[in-house]
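Consider the tokenized backbone below.
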């Protein structure tokens, strides 16, 4: 039986237009669907599925990268809360959904997957502006 290639392992290349930053242990990209403004994905450079697969030092440094990106999202969007989702059931490659959340949004305070929604796609310049704002906050 041949396993299908991991979509997260190739995501840095396949979604090059959404790249925010390459960090020491992870890649950070803007999610194409911006129904939740600032919705960002952070995924490990190495193909692992669980936090305990990483040695303690790398795990700690990766958690610092996650915190750094969340802080940049908070500075950029000023949400009421940042959601951190680490699931991996559908894509078994360690990745976080970092989602700025606002009390004014229709799904607040429920999880982002509480009900379906139409994707909000931006024009290329909209993605570019959002990515640049996040990069500035990361600097």
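A designed sequence for it:
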């Amino acid at each position: 039986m041949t396993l299908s290639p991991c979509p997260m392992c190739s995501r840095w290349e396949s979604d090059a237009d959404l790249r925010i930053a390459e960090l020491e242990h992870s890649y950070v990209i803007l999610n194409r669907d911006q129904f939740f403004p600032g919705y960002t994905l952070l995924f490990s450079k190495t193909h692992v599925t669980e936090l305990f697969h990483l040695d303690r030092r790398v795990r700690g440094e990766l958690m610092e990268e996650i915190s750094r990106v969340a802080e940049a999202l908070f500075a950029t969007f000023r949400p009421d809360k940042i959601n951190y989702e680490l699931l991996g059931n559908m894509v078994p490659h360690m990745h976080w959904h970092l989602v700025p959340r606002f009390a004014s949004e229709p799904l607040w305070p429920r999880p982002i997957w509480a009900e379906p929604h139409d994707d909000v796609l931006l024009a290329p310049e909209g993605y570019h502006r959002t990515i640049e704002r996040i990069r500035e906050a990361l600097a």
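Residues 107 and 114 are 7 Å apart (CA to CA).
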